[in-house]
Amino acid sequence: MKRLAFVATLGLGALLMSGCDASAAMRFGWPEGVTPDGKEMVDLWTWSVIAALVMGILVWALIFWTITFHRANDAKKGVFPRQTAYNVPLELTYTAIPFVIIAVLFYFTVIVQNNVESKNDDSKVVVDVTAFQWNWKFGYNQVEFSDGTTYNGFEQNGNPFEVQAQTGSGAETEHAGSDEGGEHGELPGPAGGRDDDIRDYLKFDKIETVGSSSEIPVLVLPTGKRIEFNIASADVIHSFWVPEFLFKRDVFPFPEQNATDPVFQIKSIDRTGAFVGRCAEMCGTYHSMMNFEVRAVAPEDFDSYIRFREANPGATNAEALAAICQAPESVTTVPFDTRRATDGTVGATGDPDNPTLANCTKKVS
Fold first, then answer.
1. What's the domain count of the chain?
2. Is there a single domain that holds both residue 98 and residue 147?
3. Residue 28 pLDDT
4. 287 and 250 fall within a common domain
5. pLDDT bracket for residue 235 (50, 70, 90)
6. Which residues on adjacent β-strands are paired with residue 126?
């Protein structure tokens, strides 16, 4: 009977383990990276967790060993327990071991961080990313095609809301109380001495994809090529996050005034697919709905996509995706309809009164 129970236990265990994915378990909940940088970070985080688990098991084992073998009822009454204080070799050991662990983790953290944040001039695609409440705009600034030819899509810098303010018409004239600058001297503008409506750091391109409350913006990118992102915010602080990249970068307005680097690169995307992107910085009412999608396609499909949009400037992003046999809309997330009648009156959201319902007792006038 015992042998039968043992065999049954082994069989049940094998059945349960057949549904487990060892690689997923070793990531400890982190997604599978689709970039070389993401895979480096997964390795770093995995081994950091393993080191923490090993230390945790050791500490808990020592605690339970002390509780079990040094109980008060086992001690002889009236006998003072043996003291281990001022044991120099022991104290040096438990001081040196944590130091070595921290030094090793610090070394590998710096190595991975430097690799992830490294930048060079051989990017094949340069994307301008603009975050705004509560959506995204993506533009193709530079593209190098597979045949070596290039596309320059940059159009202008400017303001996303209105015509760029002229220098001298903003903070200087608004706050100048006198030739001396007023009682307290010259008053700075609200954005590092500049007028708040001047957003000349934002970039506008000939080919752009803009999200709305009815459409998720789909950013099409090629696999196997270095890609550069130039990120900026038109209003508050946002955050550009694609979980499968295992990388997140805050998106600031006025990056120069905020002393932030708005440019980062990924070495490549290793496989085709659709990956959801999110804003990871609380930015207001519809922050949780501020999603986008990265659509990674083969390089030749990406070339066809850009050339289609270049040749058909009036075509939508959905039409360009369909032209390369891709789903025209996002497949990883859905838009959130933000329409609402704020004053309670009948508006775009429709009339809430419906006397034609089956159980309604209200007479139709």
1. 2
2. no
3. 76
4. yes
5. confident
6. 142, 228
Q: Is residue 298 part of a domain?
A: yes
Coil vs helix vs strand at 40 = helix
Residue 166: pLDDT band with limits 50, 70, 90: very low
- pLDDT class of 256 with cuts at 50, 70, 90: confident
Task: Say if residue 187 is exposed, middle or buried (CB neighbours under 10 Å; 0-12, 13-18, 19+).
Answer: middle
**Distance, CA of 273 to CA of 251 (rounded, Å):** 25
**Ramachandran sector of residue 284 (left: φ over 0; alpha: ψ -120 to 50; beta: rest):** left
Mean pLDDT confidence for 303-324: 93
Q: How confident is the model at residue 301 (pLDDT cuts 50, 70, 90)?
A: very high
CATH code of residue 241: 2.60.40.420
Residue 29's domain comprises 22-72+86-117
pTM over 0.85: no
301 and 258 share one domain: yes
Does residue 40 sit in the same domain as residue 157?
A: no
Are 259 and 144 in a shared domain? yes
Whole-number CA gyration radius for the chain: 30
Whether residue 365 is contained in a domain is answered as no
253 vs 25, which has greater pLDDT?
Answer: 253
C-beta atoms surrounding 43 within 10 Å: 15
Confidence of residue 177 (pLDDT cuts 50, 70, 90): very low
Number of H helices, E strands in the chain: 7, 13
Whole-angstrom distance, CA of residue 50 vs CA of residue 55: 9
| Secondary element (H or E) of residue 32 | none
Any bridge partners for residue 297, and if so which? 222
156 and 305 in a single domain? The answer is yes
Contact 209, 218 (CB under 8 A): yes
The C-alpha angle with vertex 231 and arms to 229 and 234, in degrees rounded to 5, equals: 155
User: Are residue 202 and residue 98 in the same domain, yes or no?
Assistant: no
